[in-house]
Structure formats: structure tokens, C-alpha cells
Amino acid sequence: MSIPSNTNQKIWLISGANRGIGFGLVKNVITRPDVVVYAGARDPAKATELQKLAAEHNNLHIVKLTSGSVEQAREVAAAIEKRYGGLDYVIANAGIAVLGYLLKDVPLEDLNEHFHVNVVGVLVLFQAVLPE
């Protein structure tokens, strides 16, 4: 993928865009006239607030993007590359937090899931969008 894009518009990709900080970023950025935002969500069909926002802004594209999914990250990167020639901004916002455990009680499966989503997911996303 080439960075930056080959258009006058600034192309953004924001993961974890269906709620919280990610959704707030999308709401803020999408109001600018010179941007196109790709908003990544694990389940776009359930991202109802994001869908409402996309109905109001034709420069907002909701894409299926699960943190840590190499295949999905590559598909999104390829679609953006094909349409715009590259990206200008990438916000790796997707993450999870399961709280309520004492350190001695943390299940190894939860720790592995946190590491995969919160650490590996960032690496996977940037590997997919950076130029070769």
C-alpha cells in the first residue's frame, strides 16, 4: 500500500469505531469536508449508531474489521488501496478489557485473548496497511 493516498482527500482508517473512543473519533473527523473515513467494526450489522452516522455522511464507509484478523485487515487495506491509492491516517483503536479478576484468578484464556486483540491486532493492522 502506498502512503499517503493519491487524492486531495485525507483517507482515514479507524478500528474499533462502533463505540467509545473510536466512535467519538469518527464523529469528529467525519465532519470535515476533505476526508473519507473507513470505520472498522467487528460486527457492522450491530453497529447501529455507526450506521446512522453513515446514513448522514456519504464519506463514511463501515467495514468488517476484527482486531487480529490478518485476512480482514488485508481485505480492508486492499479495498482502500484500490479506491484511493493509499491511506493518510490509521488509528488502531480496537481493544478489549475484561475486568473484575484478582491477579491470582485471571484465566489464561482471557489473558491470551487480551494479548491477541490489544497487541497482535495492532501489529496485524499496521502490517496490512504499510507499504511493502
UniProtKB/TrEMBL annotation:
SUPFAM superfamilies: NAD(P)-binding Rossmann-fold domains. The keyword Mitochondrion does not apply. Keywords: NADP, Oxidoreductase. One of its GO terms (molecular function) is oxidoreductase activity. Pfam families: adh_short. GO terms for cellular component: cytoplasm. It comes from the Eukaryota. InterPro entries: Fungal_SecMetab_SDRs, NAD(P)-bd_dom_sf, SDR_fam. This is NAD(P)-binding protein. It comes from Planoprotostelium fungivorum.
